[in-house]
Design goal:
CATH class of the largest domain: Alpha Beta
Radius of gyration: 19 Å
CATH topology of the largest domain: Aminopeptidase
Distance between the termini: 44 Å
Mean pLDDT: 97
Number of domains: 2
Number of strands: 11
Strand order of the largest sheet: 4-11-5-10-9-8-7-6
CATH architecture of the largest domain: 3-Layer(aba) Sandwich
CATH superfamily of the largest domain: Gcn5-related N-acetyltransferase (GNAT)
Oligomer: single chain
Low-confidence stretches: none
Shape: globular
Number of helices: 7
């Protein structure tokens, strides 16, 4: 059965988890420990109020964090309320999905892509060169579900690194990084297929990936693999001091 959008949000949280969460009424605050927006953004339940937004905003500022919320499908009222409080939109994200069978119909060529956990030192180096430092690797390490690293080679050289976790039958790829000098050679496709074969062996049924809408190259890669956009979300970040 195809996962719902709500289930895919849960897969995102499970495969790329924050270091800590706490509740302020209906608002969930996350401590990403330097792992990026996805693990640092607050989310609000349906019963949020102006007072709970203000209290959550104050709590984020008290710990030195610029107030940041994730806005998911159906949260138009929350989006408008944050806009009125001086929050701007940042990093709209598309959520791509497909059955694993679309990616496992072609074998991965030998010595091209590997599913490896723990990550090799060279994988950590590739991530670091692409701006995926130790704090984001720590997110992968604390994920408590079936997971693997992805290691890609082309032209007899180490060229790519990625990470994939599996939750509720859906595998989700994160931190897919191809070295600039090796881009455009098809390695990203083989690494995604490698992740799909790994997920299939774990009993998975679907592959998902998140991608900022501004990343044309990566979105083109996922479209070329037969994946489809099934949802979006964006962030609201505090950009003004005024609030109603």
């Amino acid at each position: 059965m195809t996962p719902t959008l709500a289930e895919l949000y849960d897969v995102t949280e499970a495969t790329w988890p924050p270091a800590d969460c706490r509740q302020i009424g209906p608002v969930t605050l996350r401590d990403g420990a330097g792992g990026g927006k996805r693990v640092s953004a607050a989310t609000a339940g349906a019963d949020w109020s102006t007072a709970s937004l203000a209290e959550s905003e104050g709590a984020m500022m008290a710990r030195g964090q610029t107030p940041l919320f994730m806005i998911r499908a159906g949260e138009e009222a929350l989006d408008s309320a944050l806009d009125a409080r001086g929050y701007g939109i940042i990093d709209p994200v598309s959520l791509w999905l497909c059955p694993l069978g679309r990616l496992t119909d072609t074998p991965v060529p030998r010595v091209t892509a590997f599913a490896i956990w723990e990550p090799l030192a060279i994988m950590r180096e590739i991530w670091a060169r692409g701006g995926i430092g130790p704090d984001r690797v720590a997110v992968m390490e604390r994920a408590a579900m079936p997971k693997t690293g992805l290691f890609g080679r082309t032209d007899d050289k180490a060229a790519g690194a990625g990470y994939c976790g599996l939750s509720g039958g859906t595998a989700m790829v994160h931190a897919l990084e191809i070295q600039p000098e090796h881009r455009g050679k098809g390695l990203g496709k083989w690494m995604m297929r490698c992740a799909a074969f790994w997920a299939q062996a774990q009993g998975g049924s679907h592959m998902a990936v998140l991608c900022t809408q501004a990343n044309a190259a990566a979105n083109g890669l996922y479209a070329s693999l037969g994946m489809e956009v099934v949802g979006q979300y964006h962030y609201r970040i505090k950009t003004k001091d005024t609030a109603p």
